[in-house]
């Protein structure tokens, strides 16, 4: 059995599909998710079926912002027992430590963390939202649901999120850019190494009005008693650390261990206990990133090689043939769906970045783009001034 996710993640799915003129029962049946599972938040459903259904619903209903709409119907309560511990934390930093430690209660395939800003901005950190892609395809709608909910929860707990500098998506825009700007109210970047809310570091020190040390202690005792450990937590954290540094340097076990505040040998032993190794995890991350850049962008293969930390383009070619059984050029031609059949994770089709309605013409910094003009990974879409 692959990774699972609590059925609470689909809260609001049925009424949303119905309002859009669709048949929720047909979608649930198509992906093997019993309707009764949605009636009990703690029921577990396969995350692959969950994510594929979200993408299928968006396509079938002609609703490219389906994930964001579903996020608008949810709140912190979808995290179940973890929600109590998060809400009763004293500060943002304390809540994030708690969520990072126990996110496996919601799904073993998901993790969140605090990392350096991917763009090197002073005084900015990235609150990352990451999915383990080893056994489950990448889903644009699931990522938008996750980051959308992350944002809504942050706003609800803080009464606003004035320190939000940018939102990062690993995929290209699947909705009009204006939709993202309206939802998040800040710059939005696509083709990032990991999904993230990038905020001013001082946000971590902000206090919650809902803080309650007694309730938090009870909630943590419950979590530690009923959910003492998470299989796969260490590999997931290593994958996240590699994904966020890929393209800036060649990842090493020493560098990743430093990021995770542990000794390299300790990290290697922990990975071995999980039945994997640093080299295997690095290969997985490279494969996923290469697939995304080759099938989701028009970037030259030489640039893709750099982004996945290969020093030579020939190394990328050899690796792609090993992963997918075809050359990089063939992979780009056949696209995500055909490559997925060869063992690669599913990826969104190539996205084109239209200019937001009413956006101004070119200006200094990230410029407005003409419809049909390709986007570049990491490029920001800014709120018009």
UniProtKB/TrEMBL annotation:
Gene3D superfamilies: Homeodomain-like (1.10.10.60)
Region Disordered, annotated ranges: 335-385
Database matches in Pfam families: Arabinose_bd, HTH_18
Location of the HTH araC/xylS-type domain: 236-334
Composition bias, Low complexity: 353-374
One MF term in the entry's GO annotations: DNA-binding transcription factor activity
Keywords associated with the record: DNA-binding, Transcription, Transcription regulation
GO cellular component, one term: cytosol
Protein name per UniProt: AraC-type DNA-binding protein
């Amino acid at each position: 059995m692959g990774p699972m996710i609590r059925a609470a993640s689909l809260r609001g799915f049925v009424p949303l599909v119905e309002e859009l003129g669709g048949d929720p029962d047909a979608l649930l049946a198509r992906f093997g998710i019993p309707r009764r599972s949605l009636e009990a938040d703690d029921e577990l459903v396969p995350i692959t079926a969950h994510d594929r259904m979200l993408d299928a619903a968006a396509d079938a209903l002609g609703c490219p912002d389906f994930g964001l709409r579903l996020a608008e119907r949810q709140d912190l309560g979808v995290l179940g027992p973890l929600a109590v511990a998060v809400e009763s934390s004293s500060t943002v930093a304390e809540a994030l430590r708690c969520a990072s430690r126990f996110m496996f209660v919601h799904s073993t395939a998901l993790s969140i963390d605090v990392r350096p800003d991917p763009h090197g901005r002073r005084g900015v950190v990235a609150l990352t939202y990451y999915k383990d892609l080893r056994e489950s395809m990448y889903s644009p709608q699931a990522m938008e649901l996750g980051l959308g909910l992350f944002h809504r929860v942050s706003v609800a707990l803080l009464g606003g999120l004035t320190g939000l500098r940018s939102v990062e998506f690993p995929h290209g825009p699947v909705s009009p850019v204006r939709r993202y700007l309206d939802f998040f109210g800040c710059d939005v970047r696509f083709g990032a190494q990991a999904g993230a809310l990038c905020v001013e570091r001082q946000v971590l020190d902000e206090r919650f009005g809902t803080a309650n040390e007694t309730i938090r202690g009870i909630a943590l005792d419950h979590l530690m008693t009923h959910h003492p450990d998470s299989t796969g937590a260490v590999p997931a954290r290593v994958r996240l650390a590699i994904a966020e540094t890929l393209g800036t340097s060649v990842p090493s076990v020493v560098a990743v261990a430093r990021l995770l505040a542990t000794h390299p040998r300790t990290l290697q032993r922990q990975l071995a206990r999980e039945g994997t190794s640093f080299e295997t995890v690095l290969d997985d991350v490279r494969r996923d990133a290469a697939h995304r850049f080759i099938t989701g962008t028009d970037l030259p293969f030489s640039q893709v090689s750099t982004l996945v930390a290969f020093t030579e383009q020939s190394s990328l070619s050899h690796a792609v043939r090993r992963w997918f059984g075809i050359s990089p050029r063939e992979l780009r031609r056949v696209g995500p769906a055909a490559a997925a059949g060869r063992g690669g994770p599913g990826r969104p089709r190539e996205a084109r970045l239209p200019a937001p309605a009413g956006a101004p013409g070119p200006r200094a910094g990230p410029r407005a783009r003409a419809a049909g003009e390709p986007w570049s990974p990491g490029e920001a879409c800014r709120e018009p001034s």
